[in-house]
Structure formats: C-alpha cells, structure tokens
Specification:
It is a single chain. This protein is mainly α. The protein has a domain of 137 residues: Leucine-rich Repeat Variant. The chain is built from 41 helices and no strands. The termini are far apart.
C-alpha cells in the first residue's frame, strides 16, 4: 500500500468519524487526527530523523491532495452539536488551528465562500470568527508572501502544483480580499464586526502589504528571486474599489523616507505602480500624483515608466492635462516637473509644451471649454515656462513664438475680461522667459489673487521635509472627507407640466345653453322635459370580468357595444389583476396600440390611453421595452407614435409617485364588515360621543405630534427607469421611408423631448439620475441648433428638468463641464434666438441654474 493510498484512507476514516459521530469526544479525536497531518515546523527542522521526514512527506501529500476538500467538508459540518460543544481552548487549539496553520489561500477562500453561501445561523457566526482570527493573526501576509514567491518551502511539491492555475487563483483571491468589507457588510448588516469596516480593514491590509514589501526587500538584498505581480494586482483592485487615498496615504508615510535613501525601495514602489493592470492604472496613478508633495518623488515612485508604458503616458501627458482639471496646481507641478527634470523624459516635456500652446490659443477650444478648464491649462502653461531652460530656449524659441502669437491675439480679442487678463499675463511671462534681451511687454494687469497664484507658479518648488508632507496629506484628506450637504429647491415651478396633454381643439361649451324666447313656439305646449342628466346608460353586453376575455373582445371588435364594454373595463381589470399579467402584457399592449376608433365612441381615446398607462405601470419592464422599440419601428402613424411617448411619460410619473399603503383600495368584503361593525349598537358608543365633545372644548398645550411620521415607501420607478429612458434616444437620427424624426416629422421629436424631460424629472430620487442626466445633456447638445422652434422648446424644457432632477452637488461637480456648456448655450438663446417663447424658457432655465449655484455656494459657506 503506497503512502498516498494510506493518507487517502486515513482522511476518509476521519471524515466518516466526523460525519457519523454521535458524541463530542469522537469529534474532538477526529480534529486531533487531522491536525497531525498539517505541516509542523519541528518536523521540517529535524532533517536527520526518519520519522520526521515521513511525517513531512505525509503532510505534503495531505496539503496537496486533500486540504482544500477537507476544509470545505469541515465547514459544512459545523453545527451546534459538535463545534458548539467545544470549549474555547479546544476550539482554538484544534478547530481554529486547522484553518490558521494550513494553506492560507485555500482556507481563506473556503471560509469566505462559506460566509457568502450561508444564511444567519450558528455556522455563519463561526465562519466569521475564523475570518476575524485570520485577519488578526496577519495570515494575509502568508498569502501575499506565498504568491510573491517568498515562502521558504516553495520548492516543495505543495507549492509547485498551483503554477498552472495561478492566474485564476490570483483573480479569485484578489477579488475576495478587495471586496471583503462590502460583502461582509451586505451579509451581516448592522452586526458587522469593526475589523471588517473599511476604516479598520484597509489599514490592517496595508500593514500586511508593507510587511510583505519588507520581506521582498530582504530577498532582493540576498539576491533571491521574487516578484510583485500579485501585490500590484491587489493594489490596482483596491484603488479601483475606492480605497486609493487610504492606500497611498499609508504607503507614503511608510516609504517616503526610505525611497529617498534606498534605491531598492524605490524600485519596489516603481514595480508596484507599473505592474498594475491597465484597467486600474488611472485609479492608482491619479491619487498618487495628487498626494505627492514634490515632483522629485515622482521619479522615485515611477522611474522612467512614462516612456515605456503607453497607458501611463496617455494619463500623465494627455488626460490629466487636457481632459480634466483640478483646483490645486500641485498635480501639474508634479507631472511637468517629473517630465522636465530627466533627460530620458525631456522630449515628452517639449511635446507637452507645444501641445499646450496650440490648445491654449485655439479659438474653438477657448469657445467650447469652461473658464475653469482654460485657467487650468493656463496654470500648466506657466509651470512649463518655469521649467524652461537655456538649452530649450535655443532649440525651440522660434517655434514657440510662432505658435504663441495667434493665441495671444485670440485672448486679447475675447469679450471675457478674465480670458483677456490671462492672455496678457501669459504674453508677459512667456516673452520675458524666452527672449529676456528683447522688448518687454507690460499690459498693466490688475493684480488679484488669481494673478498672484499664477506668479507663484513661476517658482520651482523645493523638496519639503517629511513633517510638512504629512501635514499636507492630512489636510488634503480632511478637505476631501468634508460632509456634502444635500438641499432641495423651494418655490421653483415645474416647467411644462402639461406638455403631454392634447391642445384644446375647440372652445369648451357650458353644460346648459340659454335659449332665447321664440315667438313662433306653440303657446299651448307648456310641457317641461324630464331631467335625464343623471340617467345611466345601459348596455346589452355585460362587461368582461377576466383580462383574457377583455383582450379577446378588443380583438374581435365587430360589435361596438362589445368594444365599448371591454374598453371601459380594461383599466380596472389590469390594475386589479397583477398576477399573471406579465405573460400577456406585451400582447395586450399591441392590441390596444393598434386599436382604431371605428365607431366614434365618446371616451375611446381616454379609455384606451388609461389602459395603456395601466399596463405600463403594472408591467413596466415588458411594456416599456416593447413601446420604446415600436416607437422607431416602421409603418406606424404619427398619432400612434404620439400615443407611445405619451404613455411612457405618464407611466413614468405615476411610478415615481409614492404609494401610501393606507390609501389602497380595501377589499369589498372587508369594507362591508367594517361598515356593519361601525353601525352596530355598541354600549360604549355614548362614551365616545361624550369624550369627543369634551376633547372639542378642551384646550391643551404641548400635546406632542398631531400626526404620525410619514412612512418610507419603495420607489417603483428606480428599478425600471432605464427601460423608459435610454431606448428612446438610440435611433433618433435614423431615417426611414415612413419616418424622418430630424426632418419632416420633427413635431414628433418635439414631443419626444418633452417626454424625456418628464421621465428625467420622474427619476429625480433614484441612484442613476446622474447617468441619465449626462445622457440627456449629450442628446440635447446634439440638437441645440435645430431650426424648428417647437424642437427648441422641447430642448429648453428638457434641460430645465435636468436642473430640477439632479442633486445640486452632483450637477455642479460630476457634470460641471456639461452644465457650463449648457449655460453658455442658454445665454446664446437669450441673445440670438428670434422666438420670444424660446427666450422666455431660456431665461427661466438660467434663473433656475443660478438659484442652484447660489444655494450650493451658500451651503459651502455655512459648512466653513
């Protein structure tokens, strides 16, 4: 019998003992037996002892072939009858020992998977305890060291067998570590232990990463091979999950002094950054550049990777300069100083400088970008001038002046005073730096804080001490962690609330007509007509009681009485019978949509419309998908397309309104029972009457709440808002033989814009309102110069709904560029549009936006 067969039989015997055991002692004996199969440091050190070598070989076989499955088996067998009867010492010495002294990554994954798949129970509590001890004992260090090839015994077979599936194993471990706080919070909710909270878990994880890096440094000094691919992937995942600032704050405090004097630590930090996957690079690199207090440290943390990796070069030289802007110029000083102060990177600095001159002076760029973005580019321009050397002047003087002069003329000719002042200051600075011997420009610029800040950027920053760096990092984090106060907009009227209603086709007539006396009437005819205003119309056809009967009656609409009866009952049947409606909702919608007014029924259009709305409210996903798809389909009339978008807008409004459970329709039987009980002779009725009279004549002070607190209700529109919104914009520019939305059928486009605005306002309280607003603003931006006045009315209504729906802090921060672009467009409408109504709507939108900005700034002042 081979040793592997013997171990297999022993493991099977232990499993049978745990599975079939009836007493606590048998379970404890089985735990002792399996713990003896774990690796033991004493046995590995005694190399001359045959018994120790045999035990070590048995441990290797068990760890390689059986540990993973036995870990899952042991977790599945956790019950109160076996584990719950162990004492604390026995639990720690045997049960917990098995997970903490085996293969760390297998134990970690087994425990986390068991937690995710287990409901509230005794087993879940024990698994959480195991995971807590796993973190407290810093077993994550063992995982990081093993995956970084730092284990002393990695030459043993138990570590070689994972090489084939290393990538898959890495992804699983990294995902579980990075998402551990979120998954534990979702699982345990209010009972989550403090160690799993991000403010405790991230520092603990960072301490384990730093310990791993210390071991890596020791291995490098001993000329041993190791790698940091796993650590880099973990860092990228953590930063992608939103822990970038916490990570870099701790790592900078630990390594900022080491990298200044130790090249090995500099190479380690560089490998961590450059080894991050491309999809995580921006999340890792941007917080690092923000937090570094001096550009000289950029070289220590990044090396020359900007010349080797295209992703890093794209971020540093393009995206963070031209596509984004920040309040603090520190990030510009770090990037430009990093590029300008090294010979291998100087060509990127010159390339960046020349691109900055072109973009800064371009008329189109100046017109279509916000002042903040342009000021940010001006700061970058001035910082580039600060790092300009004599060698650069001799090589690129003529080219810079050639590109600069048109830009200065563009700025000086601008109508904006701030833009003109920036152009004048840049002209003075650049000409003085590039051609000191030439004539001096002096525009007599009024000096304020903005100009003084630009002048300070001409001074190259020096290397600060470590204490100053710590203070700056703490200050940045304190500024970023400030509370964001949400506020609402009061006294702002909703624009275009009746946009989807049909215009009145005729002047409404009064119920009664005054008839002039007629001399030709027979004087003997003094009979008065009967009052038939309260008579109810009777029909020979009974109304259907089932939805399918109603739908069949609408399909076979040869009899007008049957059609009227089915159409009258359709809405109530749909709202009263929600179960099973999803299966036929699309077919029912199709029937109603194609239903034609053949018999001139009095309430045909309103009843048909209400039934379609009821379907869209009851089965929003299915009906909204069908309607939005049919809106752009062929062979539909303009009237049907109007009906589709009207139904979508009305259903979105109804779904967004909160529903009070107390106001829901009461079943008929229950209502009758309550009416009967209320009318019954109660011996205490007279007491109630007397008490009511006393209460009505009694004056009380400080009686507390007069009405109960409102109860929160679920927003029914939140989960289905995307089905009502995004599909309506996907094919607007497609031209069909029977439908040209941008051409002759632009009246439908106008109504579509009103519908999108109404859906946008209905989504004001859902989490995805920012993404919806960004899409709608982009859609509006494409059509802003449409020639049809009704389309422009719809555009102005839609942009007002964006301002009302999106929270002010999100609107002015996440959508800042889009908002300022729309503001410029609204101002152009007020100045240049020939339609009076367009000017009126544009002024209303600008006033609304001004109130939002004013209240947001006032809230920031109150916080300070």
């Amino acid at each position: 019998m081979t040793l592997e067969s013997e171990i297999r039989a022993r493991v099977r015997e232990i499993q049978n003992g745990i599975r079939n055991g009836n007493d606590q002692q048998q379970f404890l004996d089985c735990l002792k037996k399996v713990c003896k199969l774990l690796p033991c440091e004493e046995s590995s050190s005694a190399k001359g002892d045959n018994k120790a070598l045999e035990d070590q070989e048995c441990s290797n076989i068990f760890m390689k072939n059986h540990y993973t499955n036995f870990t899952k088996f042991l977790l599945d067998c956790i019950t109160f009858e076996n584990v719950g009867q162990l004492t604390k010492a026995e639990f720690n010495q045997y049960f917990l020992h098995f997970f903490l002294n085996g293969c760390c990554e297998d134990a970690f994954l087994a425990v986390t998977f068991a937690i995710h798949s287990t409901g509230p129970s005794f087993k879940l509590n024990k698994c959480v305890i195991i995971l807590e001890q796993f973190l407290k004992k810093h077993k994550l260090v063992d995982i990081l060291c093993e995956q970084s090839a730092l284990n002393k015994d990695r030459d043993l077979p138990m570590y070689n067998w994972r090489s084939d599936g290393r990538v898959l194993l890495w992804d699983t471990i990294i995902t579980e570590i990075a998402s551990l706080p979120d998954k534990l919070a979702n699982k345990l909710k209010s009972e989550t232990s403090d160690i799993f909270l991000p403010k405790h878990f991230i520092p603990l994880l960072m301490s384990d990463i730093v310990r791993t890096l210390v071991s890596v440094c020791k291995y490098i000094r001993l000329s041993k091979d190791c790698h940091l691919e796993f650590v880099s992937s973990l860092v990228g995942k953590l930063c992608l999950c939103g822990y970038a600032e916490q990570f870099w704050t701790i790592l900078l405090r630990q390594t900022s002094t080491l990298i200044r004097r130790d090249f090995i630590w500099s190479r380690i930090c560089e490998r961590i950054v450059t080894g991050v996957p491309d999809r995580c690079m921006e999340s890792v690199l941007v917080p690092l550049v923000k937090l570094l207090p001096w550009y000289g440290l950029m070289d220590r943390y990044l090396g020359n990777c900007v010349t080797q990796k295209h992703k890093i070069q794209l971020l540093l030289c393009t995206k963070l300069i031209f596509h984004r802007h920040f309040k603090s110029p520190l990030i510009l000083q770090n990037i430009i100083g990093y590029l300008a102060t090294s010979t291998p990177r100087k060509h990127l600095y010159i390339k960046l400088f020349l691109e900055l001159i072109q973009v800064w002076g371009d008329q189109s760029s100046l017109t279509h970008t916000s002042y903040e973005q342009h000021h940010y580019l001006t700061q970058a321009f001035v910082i580039c001038v600060a790092f300009f050397t004599e060698q650069h002047k001799q090589e690129h003087k003529d080219e810079i002046l050639r590109l600069l002069m048109p830009g200065i003329q563009t700025h000086i000719g601008s109508s904006d005073h701030k833009v003109r002042r920036l152009g004048m200051y840049v002209a003075e600075v650049v000409t003085a730096a590039i051609d000191p011997e030439g004539p001096k420009l002096n525009f007599e610029i009024e000096t304020d804080e903005e100009i003084l800040a630009l002048k300070r950027l001409l001074q190259i920053p020096e290397d600060p001490v470590v204490d100053i760096m710590d203070e700056e990092i703490a200050m940045m984090l304190s500024e970023r962690s400030g509370d964001i106060v949400m506020f609402g907009l009061d006294d702002v009227s909703i624009l275009g609330e009746q946009a989807l209603q049909e215009p009145a086709s005729s002047v409404p007539l009064s119920a009664e007509k005054v008839r002039e006396p007629d001399s030709d009437l027979d004087s003997d005819d003094d009979l008065e007509p009967y009052d038939m205003s309260h008579d109810t119309k009777t029909s020979k056809v009974r109304q259907p009681k089932y939805i399918r009967d109603c739908m069949e009656g609408l399909i076979n609409c040869e009899n007008p009485d049957t059609l009227e009866a089915c159409l009258t009952a359709a809405e109530n049947l749909i709202r009263a019978n929600r179960d099973g409606l999803a299966q036929i909702s699309v077919e029912f919608t199709k029937v109603l949509l194609h239903l034609t007014e053949s018999y001139s029924l009095p309430n045909f259009r309103s009843q048909r419309f209400n039934a379609l709305v009821a379907l869209a409210v009851t089965c929003p996903k299915q009906v909204a998908e069908f309607l939005t798809e049919q809106f752009y389909d062929r062979n539909y009339s303009i009237r049907q397309r109007f009906d589709i978008i009207e139904v979508i807008g009305t259903a979105a409004q109804e779904l967004s309104r909160p529903v009070d459970p107390s106001t829901t329709t009461m079943p008929e039987v229950k209502q009758k029972v309550q009416e009967v009980s209320a009318c019954s002779d109660d011996p205490d009725t007279w007491r109630d009457v007397v008490q009511k009279r006393i209460d009505s004549k009694t004056r009380r002070f400080g009686q507390g709440k007069t009405r109960p607190d409102p109860r929160p209700t679920e927003n029914r529109f939140s989960a289905v808002a995307g089905y009502f919104f995004y599909s309506l914009m996907k094919n607007f520019d497609r031209q069909e033989n029977t439908f040209d939305l941008l051409g002759e059928d632009c009246c439908v486009l106008s109504r579509l814009l009103y519908t999108l605005g109404i859906v946008m306002y209905a989504a004001s309280n859902i989490p995805t309102v920012r993404q919806m607003a960004a899409c709608l603003l982009e859609f509006i931006w494409v059509l802003r110069f449409h020639s049809d006045v009704n389309v422009r009315h719809g555009l102005l209504f839609a942009i007002s709904m964006v301002y009302l729906a999106v929270p002010p802090n999100v609107l002015l921060k996440d959508l800042q560029q889009e908002v300022f672009e729309s503001k410029n467009w609204l101002e152009d409408v007020v100045d240049k549009d020939v339609d009076t109504e367009c000017k009126k709507l544009a002024v209303q939108a600008l006033v609304l936006l001004e109130n939002i900005i004013k209240q947001e700034f006032m809230s920031d002042i109150d916080l300070t």
